[in-house]
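LAB NOTEBOOK - FOLDING QUEUE
OPERATOR: T.R.
BATCH SIZE: 2
PURPOSE: Compare the predicted structure-token outputs for two unrelated chains run back to back under identical settings.
PRIORITY: normal
REVIEWER: second-year student, initials M.K.

ITEM 1
FIELD SEQUENCE / FIELD STRUCTURE:
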Amino acid sequence: MAATEPRTEAEIRAAIREERQQLAESVEELRSDLGEATNLGAKLGRNLVLVAGVALAAGFVLGGGVGATVRYFLRRSRETS
């Protein structure tokens, strides 16, 4: 194992400063990415037609629309027979 010379106080301080700077840059990048990832309004705006369609379909199903539609068509077919 090769012997390494001890670092001076100035070298250690410079290394700590560099690490702090890199950490600060990483934190700022993470904040920026997190802000973009949680911007729900922009995501919904880009897919507004799809979101509206899904909401309409979910409301129809949850409101009993499927059952009511099936009953309507079954009743109608019995009346015409």
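ITEM 2
FIELD SEQUENCE / FIELD STRUCTURE:
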Amino acid sequence: MGEKTITVEIDEQGNSSVDLNGFHGKGCGDVAEALRGKDTLIVDRKKREYHVPATENRVVHNSTRG
């Protein structure tokens, strides 16, 4: 699983922005919505990664016995 980073910037006027790195698909939107809470969204820019479906983290073990 790759590293996930959340960057929150707040300027001198109190405006904030959130940048999510390492998230893919709908999971990115879910995290952004959770961080936003009841605040009003003014601009919503989705990165390329948002449109990439998240992959399941499954480990498949193959063994040969014989």
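REVIEWER COMMENT (ITEM 2): The mean pLDDT is 80.
FOLLOW-UP: none requested
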